[in-house]
Design brief:
161 residues; alpha+beta; six-stranded antiparallel beta sheet; two-stranded antiparallel sheet; signal; DUF6491 family protein
Length: 161
């Protein structure tokens, strides 16, 4: 089991280095367009919230999962670039099992006392969560195609010269 985990982590690290990534600015723009297109409504407070897992989309946006069917798009203020370099994320909630805009914040153990406050909470349906993931994957594939075409054009230019 331990060997499988190490193998999986190794493969993930190699593929993440090799595959193109959207810049923070591009990702934020993509997410904000998604929020507009889907007309997502903010939820200022989420009760009965228990953080199951999270995923970083950019320095400003995270996805929190509290159960397999409950996902939340979280906007942070200020930008939290330290999250991408940390193995853990800590969530501070002012009121027990409630997640609230403005008063609750996230931080990484290495960045204390720096806090990234939860500025907006957008509940996502399962379909919206899947659509957001597909939108991001599509954008990354388009970026890969552009890079591939550029490499082919450069190789062709070298052969011709």
């Amino acid at each position: 089991m331990k060997k499988m985990f190490i193998l999986f982590v190794g493969i993930f690290l190699l593929t993440s280095c090799a595959s193109p990534q959207l810049s923070n600015k591009e990702m934020v723009s993509l997410i904000e367009n998604f929020v507009e297109e889907q007309q997502l409504e903010r939820d200022h407070t989420v009760s009965a919230f228990r953080l199951d897992s999270y995923g970083q989309l950019s320095d400003e946006y995270l996805i929190f999962r509290s159960s397999p069917s409950r996902h939340f798009l979280i906007k942070l203020v200020p930008r939290c670039d330290a999250i991408g370099f940390s193995a853990a994320l800590l969530l501070h909630r002012r009121f027990g099992n409630t997640l609230s805009e403005g008063s609750d914040f996230v931080y990484v153990p290495d960045s204390l006392p720096f806090r990234c406050y939860i500025n907006r909470i957008y509940p996502l349906s399962r379909e919206q969560h899947d659509l957001l993931r597909e939108t991001i994957q599509t954008e990354i594939k388009e970026l890969e195609l552009k890079e591939q075409r550029l490499e082919e054009a450069e190789a062709k230019a070298e052969v011709e010269s």
